Amino acid sequence: MVTKEQIARINELYKKQVAGTLTEEEKKEQAFLRRLYVDSVKENLRSQLENIKIVTPEEYEQLKKEEKCSCGHEHCHHKH
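The structure corresponding to this sequence follows.
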């Protein structure tokens, strides 16, 4: 998980890069933080994909008829 402080630092280093004032040490830090961020995004996506359940049209219709959606709310019209 990437912290708000790390994202702020990524943005700060990007601004320095654009300005042309990024040192070699900061370039290494920037590469490390970017890798951390990308890995975090990939892990979150992987987790979401692992929790997807494919249903048949019949199962979907049955879910729509149930009193509560899988989200726990009374039947609602948002997508899950």
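The CA atoms of residues 63 and 69 lie 7 Å apart.
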